[in-house]
Amino acid sequence: MFITNILLKKAKSKNILVLMESAVSGHQFTSIRERLADKLELQRFDPYIQRMCLYRERKRVRSLN
To answer: Its family (predicted)?
Structure first.
């Protein structure tokens, strides 16, 4: 490996943008979490069913600065 490859390598970001999806209705929104943290699961108000429900992390969207 050349020294130039080591010097030009990009640093990984600390946070990532993830897509959250409702376990009941399929409503989606994006959230930010740390790269090394576990997958998110949280309760939030779902506008489709007008109740609180469980949201799970569905997929990673992109890296953030």
So the answer is: Belongs to the bacterial ribosomal protein bL33 family.
Give the 3-state secondary structure of residue 39.
Answer: coil
Q: Which residue has the tokens 């943008």?
A: 17
How far apart CA 41 and CA 58 sit, in angstroms, is 10
At 31-61, the pLDDT tens digits run 999 999 999 999 999 999 999 999 999 999 9
Residue environment code for 46-64, b if the CB has 16+ CB neighbours within 10 A, otherwise e: beeeeeeeebebeeeeeee
Residues 63/37, Cβ–Cβ less than 8 Å:
no
Domain ranges of the chain: 13-63
